[in-house]
Write a structure and sequence with these properties.
The complex is a heterodimer of chains A (360) and B (600).
Chain A (H helix, E strand, L loop, with lengths): L2 H18 L1 H27 L1 H4 L7 E7 L4 H6 L4 E5 L2 H9 L5 E5 L10 E8 L3 H24 L22 H34 L3 H5 L5 H29 L7 H26 L2 H21 L4 H9 L6 H34 L1
Parallel strand pairs in A: 1-2, 1-3
Antiparallel strand pairs in A: 3-4
Helix pairs in contact in A: 1-9, 2-7, 7-9, 7-10, 7-11, 7-12, 9-10, 10-11, 10-12, 10-13
Chain B lengths: L1 H46 L8 E5 L2 H6 L6 E5 L2 H6 L6 E4 L2 E4 L3 H23 L4 H4 L2 E8 L5 H5 L34 H12 L3 H7 L10 E2 L13 H26 L4 H6 L4 H26 L7 H21 L3 H20 L8 H4 L3 H10 L5 H25 L2 H4 L5 H12 L5 H27 L4 H30 L6 H22 L2 H7 L2 H6 L7 H21 L4 H20 L4
Parallel strand pairs in B: 1-2, 1-3
Antiparallel strand pairs in B: 3-4, 5-6
Helix pairs in contact in B: 1-11, 4-7, 9-11, 9-12, 9-13, 11-12, 12-13, 12-15, 12-16, 16-18, 18-20, 19-20, 19-21, 20-24, 20-25, 21-24, 24-25
Classes of the chains: A alpha/beta (360), B mainly alpha (600).
Membrane topology (chain A): Multi-pass membrane protein
InterPro entries (chain A): ABC2_TM
Main location (chain A): membrane
C-alpha cells in the first residue's frame, strides 16, 4: 500500500463531499435531532414543572369539588393557582367537558382514621396537555393531604424508613442529566454512525456506477482505494464531534476531558466504518448493504449499551469527570477489536480484488 | 385498458427484479441478524442500559443510606467517616452525614441531589409497601377518570378560549345538557395484596415499560394511584406508534427510492423511457409493488397489535406521501451519499411532523393535522369521523399528488440523467410543475400547497428557539417565520423566472403576486392555526399565527411580500432573489413586531 495514493483517494472523496454539500445536510440533520430531543426533554418537561412554567403561565385553574367536606379543601386554599368551586358532581363533569373547569375532585365520606383508605375520584380531560399541567399542581395538594392522613394513622405503622433531611429550596432540573447523560453521547457518536453509512455509499457507488475500472486503471490499487475512503470517513468523525464539543462549550456547557472523548469516538467510529466496509464489499450494492448494515448497527449499539463501561458510558463519565483511569482499558479493548476488524477488512478487500482480476 | 396492462407488466417486472436481487443474498443474513437482535434485546433487558452509570459521586457515613441507591447505577457510592467526608467534600457531588444531605453548589450537585431525592421517595414507598396495614401507609388513593372533551370544530374556530380561567366567585355552569351521574362508591375494588403487587412493580418501573404498556391491555389498575404515583401523563406516548407503524414503512420506501435511483445509474432507464409506455404508467407500475408491500406490513402490524384495520385508512395517505417523496428524492439525488442524507433528513422532518401534533391529541383541531392522531384515537377506541379524516389526510393526499405530478412531469431523459447541482435541479422540478398555459393559477395553487410545509418548518423554529432567553427568542421567531413564509411564497416565481425569463411582465407580476397571496391565505385559513396560540398558552403562538385574525390585513401583507420579491426578480433577475427575500422578510417582520407591540 502506498500512503500517497491513499491520500489522493481521500482528497478526491473529500472534494466530492464538499462539492455536493452533503456534509452540510449531515450537520443540519444532527442539529435538528439535537434540538428536537432537547425540546422533548427539556422544553416540554419544563412545561410540567409548575415553577418553570410560572414564567409563561399566570393562569389560575378552576377545579370543581364535589362530595363530602374534608381537610382537602384547606389544602386547596393554600394554593393561589388553583381555585376551588363547590359543584354538584354531574354538573361539574359536564362543565369539565366544556372546558370550563380544569378538573373535578369527588371526596367520599370515609373518616380519616377508618380502616379502609380514602378513595378520591379525580376527573380529568383525556390525553390533554392541560391535564398534565393540572396533574402536577394537584399532586402537590394531594401529597399534603396524604401526609395529614398518614399522621392520623401513624400508630398503625410498624417500621419506619431511614430519615434523610434534604436541603430546602434547591430545585434541580433535568437539564444537566439530559445534556451530559444523553445529548453529549448522542451528538458525539452521531458522526460515527453517519461516517459508517457514508463508507457504504462511497464503495457501492464505484460498483454500481461502474467507475471502479477507470479508477483501478490508474496507479491506485484496490486496497489503497478502500483505505483512502476509510481515511476520509474516519477523519470526519473527530472533526464533527470536535465541532459539537466546541459549540456546546460556547453555549456554556463545559465538557471535561474533550481530547479523551474524541479519542474514544474516533476508535469506536473506526470500528463501525470497518463494519460498513465489510458489508459494502460483500454486497457491492447499496440497498442490500445499507439494509444489512443498519440492522447490524442496532445489534451492535444495543449490545454495547448493555455492557458496563461501554464507550458511550465512558463519554458520559469523561464529560463529567468521573471516569478515572478505567477508560484507558476500555479504549485498549476497542482498539484491539478495531485492529482485528482492520486486518479482516484488508484481507477481505485483497480477496475481492484478486477475484475481480481473475474473474474480469 | 392498454394503460392498465402496461402498468401491471411493469409492476410484475419490478417485483421480480427486486425480489431476485435482494432475496437470495440478503435474506439469510437478515434472518441471522434478526435472531441476534432478539438475543441482544433480551441481554439488554436483563443487564439494563448502562449509559449514565457513574455520573455522580455520593459519599455516605452509613451503609443503610448506601442501600437506598443500590439499584441506581448513576451513583458511585463511597463510604467514609463523617469527618473524612466533610474534609473531602469537594470530591463528591452529594454527601450524607447523619441523615443530613449536602450537595455541591453547581449544576451537577443539584442534579445529583434531585436524583437522590427521587431514589429516596422510591425507597420510602418501598418501605411503606411492606407495612402489614397497607392503608395506614397509603391512606389516600386516587381513582383517575378521564373524560372526553366535547369541544367541536366550530367552537374553537370561533376563537373560544380552551379551558379559560374563570375569575368569578360562583362555579361555572355548563351550557349543554347535564347527564345524571351516580357518585363513585368509596369502596376499593382491589384487594390489598393486588395493590401491594402493583406498587411493587410500579417502583421498578423503567421509562421503557411505560411505552410498551400502551400497546398492552388495560388492567384497570393504571388509573388507581397513590398521590406520589401521580406522574403527569406524558403526551409522548404516541412516539412508540412512530416506531411501530412508521419506521417499517420508511424502510420500504427506501427500496422504492433506490429502485428509482437505479434507473438513473448508467442510463439504465433509457430503455424504459424509449418504450411507448407513458412516464405516468411507468411510475405507477414501479410504485405499485412497494405500495402493496407497505399496506401489507401496516396490516400485519395492526393485526399483531389486535387493533382494528380501520387504522389503515389514516396510514394510507402517509404511505402515499412516503412514496411520493421517495420518488422525488430518488430522482433528485446525484449520488448515493446525497441520497442517504436527503432521505434521512427528510424522514426526520416527516417523523416530527407526524409526531408533533399528536402531543396535543384531543385538543382536536391542531392535533388532527397529523394522521397519526387518528391512529391514536382509533387505538384508544374512540374512532374518528369522516370529517376528521378528511381534515387530517387531505393535506397528505394533496401534497403526495403534487409530488407525484412533479415526478411524472420530470420523468424525462433530460431531467433524469442531468448532473445539475441539487438546488438548481429542484428548481427545475418546481418549474416543470407550473403549467405552461395557466402559470398564474399554478402559482396560486403552489402557494396554497406550500402552507403545510411552512407550518411544519415554523413549528420546528418554535422548537429551536424555545430554550433561548426571552426577547431574543421572540425576535428570532418573528424573523424566521417571516422568512419562511416569504420563501415559500416566492419559490414558484423564482423557478419561473429562471426557466422563463420573459414571464415577468408588469401585469403578470401583479396578478401573480395577488394569486399567490390569495392561495397562501386560503391555505393558512384551512389549517386553522389560530387555535394553536390558545394551546401553547404563551406569546409564541401569537407570533406564528398573528396574521389570521383579520382577513384583509394579512392578504395585503402577503401581497406586499410577494410583490417586493417579484419586483426584485424583475429588476435584477434570479440573482436578486436573496436580496428580495431579505427585504420582504424585514417588511413582514416589522408588521408582526408592530402588532406584537402590546405583548413585548
Amino acid at each position: 500500500m502506498n500512503g500517497r495514493n491513499i491520500g489522493i483517494i481521500a482528497r478526491k472523496e473529500f472534494s466530492g463531499l464538499y462539492a455536493e454539500k452533503t456534509i452540510l445536510f449531515a450537520v443540519l440533520l444532527q442539529l435538528f435531532i439535537a434540538m428536537f430531543s432537547s425540546f422533548l426533554l427539556v422544553g416540554l418537561a419544563s412545561m410540567y414543572d409548575p415553577e418553570t412554567m410560572a414564567g409563561y403561565s399566570t393562569v389560575e385553574y378552576a377545579v370543581g369539588y364535589a362530595g363530602e367536606d374534608s381537610p382537602l379543601v384547606a389544602e386547596f386554599a393554600k394554593r393561589d393557582d388553583l381555585r376551588l368551586y363547590r359543584v354538584d358532581l354531574a354538573e361539574g363533569v359536564a362543565a369539565l367537558k366544556e372546558r370550563k373547569l380544569a378538573a373535578v375532585v369527588y371526596a367520599p365520606d370515609t373518616p380519616p382514621d377508618a380502616a379502609e383508605p380514602v378513595k378520591l375520584t379525580l376527573y380529568l380531560l383525556q390525553n390533554d396537555l392541560q391535564s398534565s399541567l393540572i396533574n402536577v399542581k394537584m399532586k402537590d395538594v394531594l401529597l399534603g393531604y396524604e401526609a395529614e392522613l398518614r399522621e392520623v394513622r401513624s400508630d398503625r405503622l410498624e417500621s419506619f424508613p431511614v430519615r434523610l433531611n434534604f436541603p430546602e429550596g434547591i430545585g434541580g432540573t433535568d437539564f444537566f442529566e439530559f445534556v451530559y447523560g444523553l445529548l453529549i453521547p448522542l451528538l458525539v457518536f452521531m458522526p460515527a454512525i453517519i461516517s459508517a453509512a457514508l463508507i457504504i455509499d462511497l464503495i457501492t457507488e464505484e460498483y454500481q456506477r461502474q467507475t471502479l475500472e477507470t479508477l483501478l486503471s490508474t496507479p491506485v490499487t484496490f486496497l489503497e482505494m478502500i483505505w483512502g475512503k476509510i481515511l476520509v470517513c474516519e477523519v470526519l468523525i473527530p472533526l464533527q464531534a470536535g465541532i459539537w464539543l466546541v459549540l456546546l462549550a460556547a453555549n456554556g456547557i463545559a465538557i471535561d476531558h474533550a481530547p479523551e472523548i474524541l479519542l474514544h469516538v474516533a476508535a469506536g467510529g473506526l470500528g463501525l466504518i470497518l463494519l460498513g466496509t465489510l458489508v459494502a464489499l460483500h454486497y457491492r450494492e447499496r440497498t442490500s448493504a445499507q439494509f444489512v448494515f443498519s440492522t447490524a448497527l442496532v445489534v451492535v449499539v444495543l449490545f454495547a449499551m448493555a455492557v458496563p463501561y461501554n464507550p458511550l458510558n465512558l463519554i458520559v463519565r469523561l464529560s463529567v469527570d468521573t471516569a478515572g483511569a478505567a477508560h484507558w482499558v476500555m479504549l485498549g479493548i476497542v482498539l484491539l477489536a478495531t485492529g482485528l476488524l482492520a486486518w479482516a477488512t484488508t484481507a477481505y478487500a485483497r480477496r475481492v480484488a484478486d477475484l475481480q482480476q481473475t474473474g474480469g | 385498458m392498454s394503460h392498465l396492462s402496461s402498468v401491471l407488466t411493469i409492476a410484475v417486472w419490478e417485483l421480480k427484479k427486486s425480489m431476485t436481487s435482494m432475496g437470495r443474498n440478503v435474506l439469510p443474513l437478515a434472518v441471522g441478524l434478526l435472531i441476534l437482535l432478539v438475543l441482544v434485546t433480551g441481554f439488554a433487558a436483563e443487564q439494563g442500559i448502562h449509559l449514565q452509570d457513574g455520573m455522580y459521586r455520593l459519599g455516605v457515613d452509613d451503609p443503610d443510606v448506601a442501600r437506598i441507591v443500590a439499584g441506581d447505577d448513576r451513583f458511585t457510592v463511597f463510604q467514609d467517616s463523617a469527618p473524612g467526608l466533610w474534609q473531602n467534600r469537594y470530591a463528591y457531588d452529594v454527601i450524607v452525614i447523619g441523615g443530613e444531605v449536602y450537595a455541591a453548589d453547581d449544576g451537577k450537585g443539584r442534579s445529583a441531589l434531585k436524583a437522590l431525592e427521587r431514589d429516596y421517595s422510591g425507597y420510602v414507598s418501598w418501605v411503606a409497601t411492606g407495612q402489614p396495614d397497607l392503608f395506614a401507609a397509603y391512606p389516600l388513593w386516587i381513582n383517575m377518570e378521564y373524560v372526553q372533551s366535547e369541544l367541536d370544530f366550530a367552537a374553537t374556530e370561533s376563537g373560544r378560549q380552551v379551558g379559560a380561567p374563570p375569575r368569578s366567585a360562583s362555579p361555572p355552569v355548563p351550557e349543554g345538557p347535564v347527564a345524571a351521574m351516580t357518585p363513585p362508591s368509596s369502596a376499593v375494588a382491589f384487594s390489598p395484596d393486588d395493590l401491594r403487587r402493583h406498587l411493587a412493580t410500579d417502583t421498578a418501573d423503567t421509562p421503557f415499560t411505560r411505552y410498551t404498556d400502551i400497546l398492552t391491555a388495560d388492567t384497570g389498575m393504571e388509573t388507581f394511584k397513590t398521590p406520589s404515583q401521580l406522574s403527569p401523563p406524558l403526551p409522548f406516548d404516541s412516539i412508540i406508534l412512530i416506531f411501530v407503524f412508521i419506521f417499517p414503512l420508511y424502510f420500504t420506501a427506501q427500496f422504492f427510492m433506490m429502485s428509482i435511483m437505479n434507473e438513473r445509474l448508467g442510463r439504465v432507464g433509457e430503455a424504459l423511457l424509449s418504450t411507448p409506455v407513458r412516464p405516468g404508467a411507468i411510475l405507477l407500475g414501479k410504485s405499485l409493488p412497494y405500495l402493496a408491500i407497505m399496506l401489507l406490513i401496516a396490516a400485519v402490524i395492526t393485526l399483531m397489535n389486535g387493533a382494528s384495520l380501520l387504522i389503515l385508512l389514516p396510514l394510507f395517505p402517509v404511505i402515499l406521501f412516503f412514496m411520493a417523496s421517495a420518488l422525488i428524492i430518488g430522482m433528485a439525488a446525484r449520488s448515493f451519499k446525497e441520497l442517504s442524507f436527503l432521505s434521512i433528513f427528510f424522514s426526520t422532518l416527516v417523523t416530527s411532523y407526524l409526531f408533533f401534533p399528536t402531543v396535543f391529541a384531543n385538543v382536536h383541531i391542531v392535533s388532527i393535522i397529523s394522521p397519526l392522531t387518528l391512529v391514536v384515537l382509533q387505538l384508544q377506541g374512540d374512532g374518528f369521523t369522516a370529517a376528521e379524516y378528511l381534515y387530517s389526510t387531505s393535506l397528505f393526499f394533496a401534497t403526495s399528488l403534487v409530488l407525484f405530478y412533479a415526478g411524472v412531469t420530470n420523468f424525462t431523459e433530460e431531467r433524469l440523467f442531468s448532473q445539475e447541482r441539487l438546488l438548481p435541479r429542484l428548481m427545475e422540478f418546481v418549474a416543470s410543475g407550473i403549467s405552461a398555459s395557466r402559470p398564474l393559477l399554478s402559482l396560486g395553487l403552489l402557494a396554497a400547497f406550500s402552507v403545510p410545509f411552512v407550518f411544519m418548518v415554523q413549528m420546528m423554529c418554535l422548537v429551536l428557539f424555545f430554550n433561548m432567553p426571552m426577547p431574543l427568542s421572540l425576535i428570532l421567531l418573528i424573523g424566521a417565520s417571516a422568512f419562511i413564509e416569504e420563501f415559500a411564497k416566492s419559490i414558484g416565481l423564482y423557478a419561473l423566472v429562471r426557466s422563463r425569463p420573459g414571464f415577468l411582465t408588469v401585469k403578470n407580476l401583479v396578478a401573480g403576486a395577488l394569486l399567490i397571496a390569495l392561495g397562501f391565505l386560503v391555505g393558512e385559513k384551512v389549517l386553522l392555526l389560530a387555535t394553536l396560540s390558545q394551546i401553547t398558552e404563551s406569546v409564541f403562538g401569537e407570533i406564528l399565527f398573528l396574521s389570521l385574525q383579520v382577513l384583509w390585513m394579512p392578504l395585503l401583507l402577503h401581497f406586499a411580500g410577494v410583490l417586493i420579491v417579484a419586483l426584485y426578480l424583475k429588476i435584477g433577475g434570479s440573482r436578486f432573489w436573496g436580496v428580495g427575500l431579505l427585504t420582504a422578510t424585514m417588511v413582514h417582520a416589522a408588521y408582526n413586531l408592530y402588532f406584537m407591540g402590546g405583548l413585548l
